[in-house]
Amino acid sequence: MSPEAPRKPRKRVAILGGGAAAMTAAHYMSRTPELRERLEVTVYQMGWRLGGKGASGRNLAESARIEEHGLHVWGGFYYNAFRLMQECYGALDRPPGCPLRTWTDAFQKHPLVVWEELVDGQWRHWPVETPLNDGVPGTGGEDPTLWQHLQTLIGWIKNSIFVFPHEDVRAAAAAPDTAALLHGVHAEALSTTPDGTNHHGILSGLERLRGWFHGTLQDHIWRNDEARRMYILLDLAQAVVRGMLRDGVPWRGIMCIDEHDFAEWLGRHGATSGALTSAPLRGYYDYFFAYAGGDASQPRISAAIALHHLLRLVGEYKGALFWKMGSGMGDAAFGPLYELCRRNGVRFRFFHEVKELVPDGGSRSLAAVRLRRQADLKRAEYQPLVTIAGLPSWPSAPLYAQIVDAQAAEIQRRGANLEDPLTDWDGVADVELQAGRDFDAVVLGISIGAFPQICARLIAADPAWRAMAANLPAIQTQALQLWWPGDAGSLGWDMGNATGTGYGQPLESWSDMSPVLPLETWPAGSKPGTVIYFCGIMDTPELPQRRDPGFLAGETGRADARAADWARQYLPHLYPRAGAPLARYVRANCTPSERYVLDLPGTNRYRLEADTSGLDNLALAGDWIFTGQGGAVESAITAGMLAAQALTGEDLRIRGALPSPWRRRPSLRRLL
Q: Which pTM value belongs to this model?
């Protein structure tokens, strides 16, 4: 027998950060025996938990209550995100009795959305019970094309006019000439192919339809809630169709309108002032935190990103428009991902703060990564999870018993926050990862808000990095959670479990998360019956240039005061019978990597891609790279898949990622 060939050493991958993109990359580079045979993956994470902007924690001093960065619901069109969760829960195969045993335990359908409409100076609820369907997110065939979305939208416009919730409009629509116009526009859209030359008949019909529709809108119709609301939706839908046709979106690609703000683009294509100031459009900007500088007076979002996301959100969802998690996002998503990756051999180095990426000046490679170890452990490996009500969960503070006693005591004495790079703690030791010795490739999964600090050399050396850092701003957000006794009905809310948006700033979005309460451990005599999560924007100051332990405390105090002012002004409309809450949690997401990356008009051209860092051993992963999907967990997970795919060469069947019209030459060298 011939001797076996010597086993090749595994390639080493260092993943920086532990958010959605980073953990997705870790999963897709470790999920099979073949990958584990050839790759050694290590995740370096500041502080004690994973999750990035999606992290949540259990406050062990306060009934193990769940404390989130904000509120998180997943769109039913999140193909890549749900596929990841299905793979994760399926492989993990948790034991019977675990509260989140399967992905369908962790995610539940959520069809009810409520916009808040300001009419004659008074707020009114605008509930929308979106239809459920039999689809399963993360499964199914090809996505609809832009032209198919447009055809569907024209069909919806036609059908909605025929059943318009006011008899005067229905009667006018039934007139022979009008009915023929409606059917004719739809029929022409169905029979036309999108080549940029034969859409003029559709546009002409839409212009006639627009004139007729506006002519039917009398004052008594506008004052009818149902009629006004349907008119607004139809007005916005017609502007979308006209804009797509006039600007050639189906054949030129959606990024041809990236330079425009979405609302301005809609207005340019005929949306009325009533539609442009309406609750659905305001709520859509709120959904993306789409305000330059975190300033509510500056709504701005790329028309390309807004339209692409909207068409998929409404036209491609499976099961339900939204899905809510059955616990905090840390418990529902990042706990299972951590457990599975660790089982698959991924190593985790908690308490490692990335300080600097160092390129090799003589080549197009990353030479080193410099980190600061924040604490020494009593054992070789930190065990980050605790079990709460049978569920592996992330605590909201480090498990100090695992840290060397003297360091743990000093960190607590100072009140240092090991997730804040400005905190009053300088760590215990420098660590340097060197190319060739410690890594063959690096995945940068830290958010762009931290780049001025950790990527300063790359920004100085490469115009593409400099342009990206200068043109992709990130803003602060804030969160509020309120726990009350009794159910939502006792607080004066009578529409069931809802997620709402389009309300008063700065906490303009909210969601009833009461189904998570059984997983908290409140004392028998003071168990809450309702918990509501609120979130919104914060005006965003410049980060301090040097260590400033008071910055986070100051911003948290400012968020607390803003939340109290907001509650006095706006809470009575939502929950008119609510008394003092049992508990309250306020958070300012102001550290560099917690800030939310905006999709401002004209900025997609500056986004690098997973394989275009300019260095042959640095892959990029985060919602700040180009995916064409905007700021959402689906974008971050897609980015992590793109990074893993670029390094391994494996086809991961990624859905929804757009090719960049500004594609740069790939620089990344494959590992396998």
A: 0.96
